[in-house]
Amino acid sequence: MTKNTPIGEVGDLPPEEFRRIAHEAVDWIADYLTNVESLPVKAKVRPGEVRARFPASAPEEGESLDGALATWRDVIVPGITHWNHPAFFGYFPSSGSAPGILGEMLAAALNVNAMVWRSSPAATEVEELATDWLRQMLGLPADFEGVINDTASNSTLYALATARQVAYPDVRQTGLFGQPRGRIYASDQAHSSVEKAVLTLGLGRGSFRPIESDDAFRMRPEALRAALEEDVAAGVRPIAVVATLGTTSTASMDPVAEIARIAREFEIWLHVDSAYAGSGAIVPELRPRFSGWEGADSIVMNPHKWFFTPSDCSVLFCRHPEQLAGAFSLVPEYLRSAEQGSTRSLMNYGVALGRRFRALKLWLVMRTFGSAGLARRLLDYVHMADELAGWVDEAPGWERVAPASFSTVVFRYAPAGMGLDETNALNQRILDRVNASGEAFLTHTVLRGKMTLRMAIGNVKTTREHVVHAWELLRDAAEALSKAA
Amino acid sequence: MTKNTPIGEVGDLPPEEFRRIAHEAVDWIADYLTNVESLPVKAKVRPGEVRARFPASAPEEGESLDGALATWRDVIVPGITHWNHPAFFGYFPSSGSAPGILGEMLAAALNVNAMVWRSSPAATEVEELATDWLRQMLGLPADFEGVINDTASNSTLYALATARQVAYPDVRQTGLFGQPRGRIYASDQAHSSVEKAVLTLGLGRGSFRPIESDDAFRMRPEALRAALEEDVAAGVRPIAVVATLGTTSTASMDPVAEIARIAREFEIWLHVDSAYAGSGAIVPELRPRFSGWEGADSIVMNPHKWFFTPSDCSVLFCRHPEQLAGAFSLVPEYLRSAEQGSTRSLMNYGVALGRRFRALKLWLVMRTFGSAGLARRLLDYVHMADELAGWVDEAPGWERVAPASFSTVVFRYAPAGMGLDETNALNQRILDRVNASGEAFLTHTVLRGKMTLRMAIGNVKTTREHVVHAWELLRDAAEALSKAA
User: Fold this and answer.
1) CATH class of the domain comprising B371-484
2) Would you list the DSSP string of A294-349?
3) What 3-state DSSP class applies to A239?
4) What stretch of H or E contains A132?
5) Partner-chain contact A58 B197, CB within 8 Å
6) Cβ pair B26:A30 closer than 8 A
7) CATH 3.90.1150.170, chain A: domain bounds
8) CATH fold label, B15-82
9) Residue A311: its chain B contacts at CB < 8 A?
10) Which positions ≥6 away from B338 have C-beta within 8 Å?
11) B142 in reach of chain A (CB within 8 A)
12) Fold for domain A15-41+43-80?
């Protein structure tokens, strides 16, 4: 303390104050995990309603954490759409779990930075360990080296930046100015993050070429080959192809073995986006579906999706980590240290310099569930999805819009004789009605003009009964809305 | 459960099991926060030592969380460099705090995604609220709109992607192919993230032009103007200038008002990197140093640096949020929803689609400390740094290498008559000796060839006594090593 400031002002809240309030928070969390099913899945608030209940400005003098916890309970939580609810079937369930929450608590307490080894050795080494455990569980060869990023969007950006570096060896120095146009290929079902990466990298949307998918929403390899041949003949430089194993709309699987052969033939980078479905590769019964992905140059798989690890945790596996570092590495003087020859500096594998200790939660999840335990859980969801697909097939007026894949089922209510626009509008109303019930939450997609309902099963607490109930809600909504019409 | 799988397999650990172990974890955290000062600041482990104590593969069947907590205590924590230690003076202290840890605990429990409003309304609205509270505290005009990213590296990438979009209006469609070379300017003291962004954006290092800094490591505006004039005359297209308020090496402040005038004159984007020192703008006594930054197009400030918020939390303020979204926004069908006209979709302001509920910890920190409480704490550190600077000035053989700025002091031991190489080597040994003591942790930089020691004061628990003791350690090390030589 300097003489100008009152003694006792410097410093955090007393640890005993933290202890008291954090125990209270733990009890809240445990109660929440017990009772989350009794809450509406989708928040029942209107835009602006949450924010309006806060003061417009920060308080000048600090206020108590007890009051903050009250605001949390009374204002914030009612404005939350509960991804923890076992009937949350929207997007891809980014399911946390108890060991994952514990990992985030401990990581937040340490608050270290895994940018270079020295800045916290265990954070770097547990990241190396956890990504290697995961690699083994996925059955990938030992030359795939993993690094944890925040999101698949960034993992894919980093992979494609590396592909760009390989395709244009002097891009690091000269940029894309004056270079021949390049192109990145992915199916018309690929995630928007591929196109976003193309934009970010300065390639422009004109450098993204969507490849036609087949009836089951899988990239058509012959269309990829034709596009490559056409582009090469036109003087366009192919940079990379992205194969999606588990697309966002339908969880369809591109034929990766054949795509890998084409990528090798044209000598371009193959990136595999398996952010959601990649978890499935740990299941012996599902592993064969991934055959050929080991031929990729890079693979992204998100433990924060179908692997019970809280957000954010996206693992980018790369067989050429030195090329990945080559695209990004810049080591300023203030980050140099003696161990840099013998240790990995994880900051070199992407844009972000600061890196949380994300490996901790991933390690805790794998250790607590075990590889076989995780595999059994994932297979359960696949069985539930298959059963749901069977119900859809048998129910009059209902139809599947794509094959069920992993734990995702896409379907719609399409009574005979109803036109497309009317059917689409009806499905939107069914979706809104089910979501408004608060008893289940689904999202939608549009497949070749058809408004389509999606159920992605993956919350750690979801059981068959939740799927049964959601299916009842859907059928009831369809019936009620059809009568009303 | 399907009939193929055993009942009871689906599901998380029982919440009561979580409750028990999480209470234990809270006690560990509270004890840790109480006793962290008794631990060595820098981890005393050799490369590979931590990892070697783990099994090479994940267990097949899950193991207990109690065992995991034991591994945490016995294996992981001894491998940690403690950013929580009050004598951690390295890099920029990314200091957490008790309210921040609480925020991370609760956010991890909810595990929601703030990508669109619907995916968790309160997460979007609290982010709007918290960044607006922060904007007011910093004294920025209301047209600056904030969004939370993981790191300043990404905030700067997003800002410069927007500048690129403004400079090349058709880049989104056509990319940089065939465009005239562009250029981004920053001082030779700017953070490496600026150059990393230039690489990522496909501009190439040739598009980065470092501008000479003056004796106090501030960008020379006349050098910026000369560079711009030269480039424009040569047909190079200026894209953006980055002014750093609080450089990484010395916390020096570029003359932002003058730089803003030049940016306006040349009609280029002005991005301000104030990741560390920006927090200082909340202090009335320090606010005048930021005069002119309100003329920027975008400003990055990291609450996870000098603002007691655990990593990761970087706020990008932008006066043209529609241009920011214009550089990135891509809304695929599966993310559309009815409210998108009337609510903000925070995913549109950068690369990452998945977004944690980071606003919670930031809100908790501002609410618990209060704006005046935060300002008093920051000013304390500035007073400590000024006092340390005075001691350096008075001590024989010691010298400052740059003016003290905010809470950062850079200095070295340079006995009269010693050559540069020898002086540099001596300072490296002083640094290594102090860090090996485990009683304080500093990092270094190199300034115009001089190996320089840095002390950045900012941990929430640091008091004057810790600074006094670090200074004693430094002087003792210098004396011992000088005698030995």
Assistant:
1) alpha beta
2) GG-SEEEE-TTTTTS--S--EEEEES-HHHHHHHH----GGG--GGGGTS--GGGG
3) strand
4) helix A121-138
5) no
6) no
7) 371-484
8) dopa decarboxylase, N-terminal domain (1.20.1340)
9) 111, 113, 354, 356
10) none
11) no
12) dopa decarboxylase, N-terminal domain (1.20.1340)
* Location of structure tokens 């100008």: A4
Nearest to B225 by CA among B271, B269, B258: B258
Q: Which two tokens stand for residue B186?
A: 């920053």
Is A136 close to B58, i.e. CB distance below 8 A? yes
The C-alpha atoms of residue A60 and residue A58 are separated, in whole angstroms, by 6
Rounded to a whole number of angstroms, the distance from the CA of A126 to the nearest CA of chain B is: 6
* CA pair distance A225, A211, nearest whole angstrom: 10
A261 token code pair: 């052969």
Please count the other Cβ atoms lying within 10 Å of the Cβ belonging to residue A60: 13
- Residue B94 in contact with partner chain A when CB distance is under 8 A: yes
Listing from the earlier edge strand, what are the strands of the sheet with B314-318? B145-149, B314-318, B298-301, B269-273, B237-244, B182-187, B208-211
Residue with tokens 């059994």: A376
pLDDT digit of tens for each residue in chain B (485 aa)?
Answer: 333 333 335 678 889 999 999 999 999 999 999 999 999 999 999 999 999 999 999 999 999 999 999 999 999 999 999 999 999 999 998 789 999 999 999 999 999 999 999 999 999 999 999 999 999 999 999 999 999 999 999 999 999 999 999 999 999 999 999 999 999 999 999 999 999 999 999 999 999 999 999 999 999 999 999 999 999 999 999 999 999 999 999 999 999 999 999 999 999 999 999 999 999 999 999 999 999 999 999 999 999 999 999 999 999 999 999 999 999 888 777 778 778 778 889 999 999 999 999 999 999 999 999 999 999 999 999 999 999 999 999 999 999 999 989 999 999 999 999 999 999 999 999 999 999 999 999 999 999 999 999 999 999 999 999 999 999 999 999 999 988 76
Question: Min CA distance, B291 vs chain A (Å)?
Answer: 22
- Which residue type is seen at A240? A
A82 in contact with chain B, both atoms CB, cutoff 8 A: yes
> Residues of B with CB below 8 A from A150's CB?
150, 312, 352, 354
Rounded to a whole number of angstroms, the distance from the CA of B470 to the nearest CA of chain A is: 15
Judge: A370–B172 Cβ closer than 8 Å, yes or no: no
Domain with CATH 1.20.1340.10 in chain B: 15-82
What are φ and ψ of residue A273, in 5° steps? -95, 100
Q: What is the ipTM of this complex?
A: 0.96
The residue count for chain A: 485
Residue B264 CA, chain-centre distance (Å), reads: 28
Please, are residues B82 and B45 in contact by the beta-carbon 8 Å criterion?
Answer: no
With contacts defined as CB-CB under 8 Å, which chain A residues touch B443?
A: 334
Which residues does chain B have within 8 Å of residue A72's beta carbon, measured at their own beta carbons?
Answer: 106
CB contact under 8 Å between A91 and B119, yes or no, is yes
Residues of chain A with CATH 1.20.1340.10: 15-41+43-80
Name the fold adopted by A103-369.
Aspartate Aminotransferase; domain 2 (3.40.640)
Question: Residue B54's closest chain A neighbor by CA?
Answer: A129
User: Are the C-beta atoms of B127 and B346 separated by less than 8 Å?
Assistant: yes
The closest alpha carbon to A158, from A289, A388, A41, A321, belongs to A321
The angle formed by the CA atoms of residues A191, A423 and A188, to the nearest 5 degrees, is: 20
Count of beta carbons in the 10 Å neighbourhood of residue B16: 11
Contact at CB, A117 and B367, closer than 8 angstroms: no
Give contacts of A 388-417 with B, CB under 8 A: none
Residues in chain A with CB shorter than 8 Å from the CB of B173 are: 204-206
- The helix/strand/coil state of B86 is coil
Contact: B384, A110; criterion CB under 8 Å = no
| B343: nearest CA partner in chain A | A47
How many contacts does A have with B, using Cβ atoms within 8 A?
569
Searching chain B, which residue's CA lies closest to the CA of residue A15? B30
